[in-house]
């Protein structure tokens, strides 16, 4: 295969594949900075994908679909927040419960919404907006500057999140909660409130990532549409060292391998394409093997916080 | 073995442990009923159809048992791993690889008869164990989070199975493998395949290993406190690796049994799909007790086979069953966490004290 001719295709697929992972991973950065490991991303994304699809289809307004999807994501993540913050339940176990419950709700809704009414099966897609001038740059122009508005927003979010954590008082209090909640509490930071806020942001962003899948990626919802992207986003956060810029780089890298898979499938149609489909998943593992240090990340990550405990 | 006397505190804790999942199931069923009622259907009729469709007669019961059988395996897989502090979400991948190895062994070598059956089961166990070993090695050498690696390996296994049933042993180009020859299938007893009995025996055996042997004690110790275990001289890393291998082997055996025992005796799209997560749910609801896991898996089987009947009788999508399942686990998780909260513990203790004092006064 001529790599240079395939490159624009790969890069286009890269940005498309990176956006949902990026959105979910940014949400997870908020969550983990506040000391909450949320492995329920996959489930929240499934809810976001379905609600975005259904509301977008019903109202004809895709942006409304996105907003309602984010609200639904927040709602389901509040369940996680209540269990882990208020009841101090095990975060991994709760996240797993969300992963089982949320796709079931989405599937049930899908069965009711589409069911025998196959007119509802295909939704609308957001249109791509080409930025004049920039979009005609060879190779990267079409990939980076001819996208849906949601994708642009996702990329714009990265410097904002970075700025928030570096320079805002609130961002610093988020980080202190993840590092040492007891010390944060003595400084007058309401740890429980910060954790709930983190869950709200995380739910909204992860659901937006899911909604991207149905509003910009494919026009249909299917059970299991998220295809492990929630877990890849978790890997992205580790790989990107819990920082917004790192997460951006990591998700573009994951997107690149997703794009490579798409390009290889198109190139070698007679080959067993399933091996190409394995690429993003195998790459995730390989990336973690080489760069997934266990000695990084917020110190109080994953531990329940008992206010009374000393 | 002498039964040790339990303090009142321990007894109440144990009662809570049994009570929480039961309450969770009831709450989930009630919410399920509310959802059904909101759709304008009769929930009682629905639940009656569910029981009728899963336990109504012998044939239905055996179908339910066969549906529960793979869930017992993946449930045991998750419970065993989690007892050692390993959160194995890869039950599905290990299950699928078990099925693939069995198919390769039986179809590829053209084996028939009991030899094919025995080698097929063995191949399943080995393949599952290897698929469990991989994330184990990654965890103990590089400290990788096994939740992510096992999930990624699930997708790799899924696509590998696609390769097997589309390219290697495809049935006339259709996306499914050739059926396992009649003579190499698991024999039937009481209308179900032997795998069901195997699963139940395995569950009891694992309960015995975990709670009644020194090996099981070490596994549990590592799960509760790896640092204390290491200080005690337990080979923590080796035990963790063993937990990965054994739990993978259990799931792999499940895949082999599913392929050799259940119609259509082939690999095809959807083989083993969702069984890994169901297994985790079962293990958590059963509070990691292997014998309880058998019952929870059976209950999940009832929900699954009964859900189809419920759909045809009252016209509610079968996904309602999955919602109920999801609610059970979230209630069970929340409930178990809630009873451990210091405030609630103190309240329960205070009530017990008051009760004891009352008894004293009365006496």
TrEMBL record, chain A:
What superkingdom heads the lineage?
A: Bacteria
- Provide the protein's localization: Cell membrane
Which keywords, in A-to-Z order, does the entry hold? Cell membrane, Membrane, Transmembrane, Transmembrane helix
- Membrane disposition: Multi-pass membrane protein
Locate the transmembrane regions by residue number: 6-27, 34-56, 62-80, 92-113, 144-165, 196-220, 232-257, 278-297
GO CC annotation = plasma membrane
Q: Name one GO molecular function term.
A: transmembrane transporter activity
Full protein name: ABC transporter permease
Q: Which organism is it from?
A: Tractidigestivibacter scatoligenes
């Amino acid at each position: 295969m001529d790599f240079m001719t395939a490159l624009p295709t790969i890069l286009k697929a890269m940005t498309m594949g990176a956006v949902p992972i990026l959105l979910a991973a940014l949400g997870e950065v908020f969550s983990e900075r506040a000391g909450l490991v949320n492995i329920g991303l996959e489930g929240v994304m499934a809810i976001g994908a379905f609600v975005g699809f259904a509301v977008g289809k019903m109202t004809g307004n895709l942006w409304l679909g996105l907003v309602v999807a984010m609200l639904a994501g927040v709602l389901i993540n509040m369940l996680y927040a209540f269990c882990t913050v208020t009841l101090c339940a095990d975060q991994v176990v709760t996240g797993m419960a969300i992963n089982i419950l949320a796709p079931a709700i989405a599937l049930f809704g899908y069965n009711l919404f589409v069911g025998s009414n196959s007119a509802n099966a295909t939704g609308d897609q957001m249109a791509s907006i080409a930025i004049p001038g920039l979009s005609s740059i060879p190779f990267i122009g079409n990939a980076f500057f001819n996208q849906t508005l949601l994708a642009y927003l996702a990329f714009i979010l990265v410097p904002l999140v970075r700025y928030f954590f570096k320079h805002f008082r609130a961002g610093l209090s988020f980080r202190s909660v993840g590092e040492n909640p007891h010390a944060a509490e003595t400084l007058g930071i309401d740890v429980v409130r910060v954790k709930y806020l983190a869950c709200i942001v995380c739910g909204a962003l992860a659901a937006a990532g899911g909604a991207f899948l149905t509003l910009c990626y494919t026009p249909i919802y299917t059970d299991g549409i998220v295809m492990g992207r929630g877990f890849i986003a978790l890997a992205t956060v580790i790989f990107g060292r819990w920082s917004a810029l790192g997460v951006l780089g990591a998700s573009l890298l994951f997107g690149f391998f997703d794009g490579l898979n798409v390009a290889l499938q198109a190139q070698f149609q007679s080959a067993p394409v399933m091996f190409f489909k394995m690429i993003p998943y195998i790459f995730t593992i390989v990336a973690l093997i080489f760069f997934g240090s266990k000695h990084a990340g917020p110190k109080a990550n994953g531990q329940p916080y008992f206010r009374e405990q000393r | 073995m002498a039964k040790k006397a339990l303090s009142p505190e321990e007894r109440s804790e144990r009662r809570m442990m049994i009570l929480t999942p039961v309450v969770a199931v009831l709450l989930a069923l009630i919410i399920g009923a509310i959802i059904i009622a909101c759709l304008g259907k009769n929930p009682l009729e629905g639940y009656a159809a569910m029981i009728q469709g899963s336990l109504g007669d012998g044939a239905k019961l055996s179908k339910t048992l066969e549906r529960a059988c793979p869930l017992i395996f993946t449930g045991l897989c998750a419970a065993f791993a989690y007892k050692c502090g390993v959160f194995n979400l890869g039950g599905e991948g290990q299950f699928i690889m078990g099925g693939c190895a069995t198919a390769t062994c039986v179809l590829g070598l053209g084996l028939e008869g009991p030899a094919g059956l025995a080698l097929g089961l063995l191949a399943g166990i080995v393949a599952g164990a290897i698929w469990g070993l991989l994330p184990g090695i990654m965890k103990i050498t590089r400290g990788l989070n096994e939740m992510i690696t096992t999930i990624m390996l699930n997708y790799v296994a899924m696509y590998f199975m696609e390769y097997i049933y589309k390219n290697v042993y495809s049935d006339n180009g259709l996306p499914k493998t050739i059926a396992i020859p009649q003579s190499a299938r698991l024999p039937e007893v009481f209308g179900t395949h032997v795998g069901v009995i195997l699963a139940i025996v395995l569950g009891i055996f694992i309960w015995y290993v975990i709670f009644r042997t020194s090996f099981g004690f070490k596994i549990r110790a590592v799960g509760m406190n790896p640092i204390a275990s290491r200080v005690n001289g337990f080979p923590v890393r080796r035990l963790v690796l063993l937990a990965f291998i054994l739990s993978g082997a259990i799931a792999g055996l499940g895949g082999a049994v599913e392929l050799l025992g259940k119609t259509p005796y082939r690999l095809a799209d959807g083989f083993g799909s969702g069984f890994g997560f169901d297994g985790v749910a079962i293990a958590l609801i059963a509070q990691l007790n292997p014998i309880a896991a058998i019952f929870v898996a059976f209950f999940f089987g009832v929900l699954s086979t009964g859900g189809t009947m419920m759909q045809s009788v009252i016209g509610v999508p079968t996904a309602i069953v999955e919602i109920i399942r999801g609610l059970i686990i979230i209630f069970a998780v929340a409930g178990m966490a809630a009873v451990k909260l210091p405030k609630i513990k103190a309240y329960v203790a205070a009530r017990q004290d008051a009760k004891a004092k009352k008894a004293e006064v009365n006496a």
